[in-house]
Amino acid sequence: MDTLTQAALGAAVGGAVLGRRLGRKAVLIGAALGTLPDFDVFLDYGDAVLNVTEHRGFTHSLFVLTGFGTLLALLARRFAPARDITLGRWWAFFVLCLVTHPLLDALTTYGTQLWWPLDMRPSAWPVVFIIDPLYTLPLLVGIGFAMATGNGFRGPAWGLSLSCAYLAFAMLAKGVVEHRLEPLLAEYGIEDAPRLVQPTPFNTLLWRATIIDGDDHYETLVGLFDGTEPPLLEVFHRGAELEADALALEKGARLDWFAGPYLRYEVRRRDGRETLVATDVRLGFPGFYAFSYALATREGEAWQPLEPTEMVTPDTRADRDALGQLAARVFSPEARLCTSDFVTDRWVADVPEAC
Questions:
Q1: CB 352 within 8 A of CB 340
Q2: I need a surface site. Which of 34, 204, 254, 299 has the fewest CB within 10 A?
Q3: What Gene Ontology terms describe what this protein does at the molecular function level (predicted)?
Q4: Is cis: bond before 117, omega within 30 of 0?
């Protein structure tokens, strides 16, 4: 999630745990702790693939943050002027303010290495977009009340309760969307294919489903207000014939570890040379993919790894009007939004007649 939201979450948690005893101080310290795990954005690994795959790494580990929170609790118990606060309460304060950050991040699409240093793929159970005003606003109102009145508990506790209720709604909405998808996927025979269901930007009413089946990359939008209107399933090429070449590269394998099957491959001409490019189709929107990486250049019949890898601009014809169309689609299934409208034609395999 964005920095403001993480600061607000840490502040609300801090107020809920120690607001009665520390007042505004609990809110301010909680806000600082809530943003701390994101200091890794300042780390530059000198390589585009490493920068994206190492983010939300060791600084988001539940093991690391719990250990660090325990250390802070011991120091606070020993040196803080508030001698009546028990070690257990200090521990709950520091650990919860820290670990709620990666736990919230894990509810977005990007993926969070909760179990670092264990060799496990990043955890991602996307139910909220990386910026969602309806999640953040109750937290901000609650901590604003705390700062204005000096009551460090009541406002943050209410804000935290409302934001958690919103997450519960988002989880329920995702369940409804997945239920509506089942007949469509069964019709295409892809009910067992890897799928990713995530909210579209800034809301939990309209959801995007991405399904990968070999070289086929399926996309559809499903809204809670769609009623009996069936989803439109569009099919795109994924460039799977290049996947083996990409996975043979160290950075290509690293990107696959990070994004799983949700990668598109293509050969692009850059600086007069053929370049193998991988695009993460989870992050962004068809026509608006933000994360593409140049992995290798062709030398004769072989691919020569790029050192370092580079982030490149995707070759699309997307325009910003799509965001307005997306907003209209939230409440109106009649406002058909075909993602193929924003994707270069060479990637389109099949679109419904309604598009």
A1: no
A2: 299
A3: hydrolase activity
A4: yes
> With bands split at pLDDT 50, 70 and 90, how would you rate the model's confidence at 343?
confident
State the Cα–Cα distance between residues 320 and 343, nearest whole angstrom. 13
**Single pTM value for the model:** 0.94
pLDDT of residue 317: 53
Distances 267 to 2, 281, 303, 305, 340 between C-alpha atoms, Å: 33, 16, 11, 14, 20
Compute the distance between CA of residue 99 and CA of residue 106 in angstroms, rounded to an integer.
11
Q: What is the DSSP string of 297-338?
A: EEETTEEEEEEEEEEE-------THHHHHHHHHHH-TTS---
Q: How many CB atoms lie within 10 A of CB 287?
A: 18
Task: Give the 3-state secondary structure of residue 165.
Answer: helix
Q: What is the strand order of the sheet 206-213 is part of?
A: 195-199, 206-213, 216-223, 234-237, 348-350
What residues contact residue 191 under an 8 Å CB cut-off, 6+ apart? 182, 185
Work out whether the CA dihedral 345, 348, 350, 353 comes out positive or negative.
negative
Measured between alpha carbons, how far is 355 from 352 in angstroms, rounded to an integer?
A: 6
Mean of per-residue pLDDT scores for the chain? 93
Looking at residue 315, its pLDDT comes to 55
Task: Provide the pLDDT for residue 314.
Answer: 63
Task: Write the single-letter amino acid at 167.
Answer: L
- What is the torsional sign of CA 286, 287, 290, 293? positive
Q: Is 11 in contact with 217 (CB distance < 8 Å)?
A: no
CB distance 227 to 333 below 8 Å: yes
Domain definitions of the chain by residue range: 3-170, 189-355
Q: Kindly tell me if the per-residue pLDDT of 322 is higher than 80.
A: no
In the prediction, which pLDDT does 287 show? 81
Q: For residue 308, say if its preceding peptide bond is cis, omega within 30 degrees of 0.
A: yes
- What pLDDT does residue 337 have? 82
Which token pair is 57? Answer: 């790494």
Q: Which residues have a Cβ under 8 Å from the Cβ of 74 and sit 6 or more positions away?
A: 87
